[in-house]
Amino acid sequence: MLDKTGVCKRVTVTSCWVSMQIKLVDKKTMKDVDLNDYRGSVLFLSIVPSIDTAVCEAQTHHLGEEGDALPPTIKRITISRDTPFAQARFAKEAKLEDIDYLSDYKEGAFGRSTGLLIDGPQLLARSVVLVDKQGIVRYIQVVPDITHLPDMGNDFAKAIELDRLP
Q1: Which residue of 99, 100, 117, 147 could cross-link 77, Cys pair, CB 3.0 to 4.6 Å?
Q2: Do residues 47 and 125 lie in contact, with contact meaning Cβ atoms separated by under 8 Å?
Q3: Do residues 31 and 25 make contact, with C-beta atoms less than 8 angstroms apart?
Q4: Are 65 and 59 in contact (CB under 8 A)?
């Protein structure tokens, strides 16, 4: 659980997030998306509080620019509580349209179900989650202070390791 400032107090991570059938909204289509739809690919979930902050922008630029070196079989996805319209605007302005953006804006179901919803502001905790090809969460990094970036270099390396597995 995260307190109002985004400091990690306790996070319980289940290995079945993807199988929980949590609906997120795709910024391109405005349609509900289930993370199970990505099964068969490694998922690199870059979770940010709000796309319109400097740290979230930096994290998303890392994913979009440095993440271009990742194998194409690794699906790069940014998840936030921003509206799909805000995500689409950001992607266009930042020229980062080659990654997927999913929104948890409706009810915060993803944040609640995963324990990543911050009490108070109702934003998502800054984190990276890696899901294997079978849909099992294999790695999570929750940044203890939301004003700091995750270790994206390390996260990219772990994603590549997962992608090499059958």
Answers
A1: 100
A2: yes
A3: yes
A4: no
- pTM of the full structure: 0.89
Packing angle of the helix pair 54-65, 84-94 (nearest 10 deg): 60
Per-residue model confidence as pLDDT tens digits over 36-62: 889 899 999 999 999 999 999 999 999
Active site residue 8: no
Q: In one letter, which amino acid is 162?
A: L
What is the fold, at CATH topology level, of the domain defined by 18-164?
Glutaredoxin (3.40.30)
Per-domain residue ranges of the chain: 18-164
Contact between 140 and 127 under an 8 Å Cβ cutoff? The reply is: yes
Strands lying side by side in the sheet with 42-47: 32-34, 23-26, 100-103, 74-80, 42-47, 127-131, 137-142
Please choose, from the candidates 130, 80, 98, 103, the residue with its C-alpha nearest in 3D space to the C-alpha of residue 31.
103
Task: Convert the pLDDT of each residue in 99-138 to its tens digit.
Answer: 999 999 999 999 998 899 999 999 999 999 999 998 889 9
Distance of CA 60 to the CA centre of its chain: 10
